[in-house]
Design a protein that fits this description.
By secondary structure, the chain is mainly α. It is built from 8 helices and 2 strands; from the N terminus they run αβαααβαααα. It has a single domain, classed as Clp, N-terminal domain (Double Clp-N motif, Orthogonal Bundle). It is globular, with a radius of gyration of 15 Å.
Length: 161
């Protein structure tokens, strides 16, 4: 079951795509909608994400780099396969952990499995990782400001293809 906040967030993601006449709602539309989801915002702030910078970066990307998904005849935007996988992954994780409601925070964690997305790139660019998000959601442990864990194996941030 989806939380009421997440239902609004998903509608907002589709609306962002529709407003721009995009044929598809991408992970970037989804993350842009999560920037206004109170559950996701709490996690992002605990992970030291500059939410306003993220909003600007995503808006710029969606407005200027997704021109190839603008349709000539406007129909309702459809979620991409990646968008659907993220929702499914979050739902399975919530169910397997014995909880009943999928929230924006769960979606944020599930996003990190889509490694070749600009959405994940923008989060990693601000040094947010899946582990940071899980630590906060599971244990209430916020990331220390500017802290990259010493000795941690950190993969270099690459812009997706």
């Amino acid at each position: 079951m989806l939380s009421p906040n997440l239902e609004q967030t998903l509608r907002r993601a589709l609306a962002y795509a529709n407003d721009r006449r995009h044929d598809y709602a991408t992970l970037e539309h989804l993350l842009l909608a999560l920037v206004d989801d109170q559950d996701a915002i709490a996690v992002m702030r605990a992970c030291n994400v500059d939410v306003e910078r993220l909003r600007r970066d995503l808006s710029d990307y969606v407005d200027n780099q997704l021109g190839n998904i603008v349709g000539s005849h406007h129909a309702e935007a459809k979620p991409t396969a990646g968008f659907q996988r993220v929702l499914q992954r979050a739902a399975i994780h919530v169910q397997s952990s014995g909880r009943e409601e999928v929230t924006g925070a769960n979606i944020l964690v599930a996003l990190f499995s889509e490694r070749e997305s600009h959405a994940v790139f923008f989060l990693q660019e601000q040094e947010m990782s899946r582990l940071d998000a899980v630590n906060y959601i599971s244990h209430g442990i916020a990331k220390a400001p500017g802290a990259l864990r010493r000795g941690a194996c950190v993969a270099p941030i690459r812009r997706p293809r």
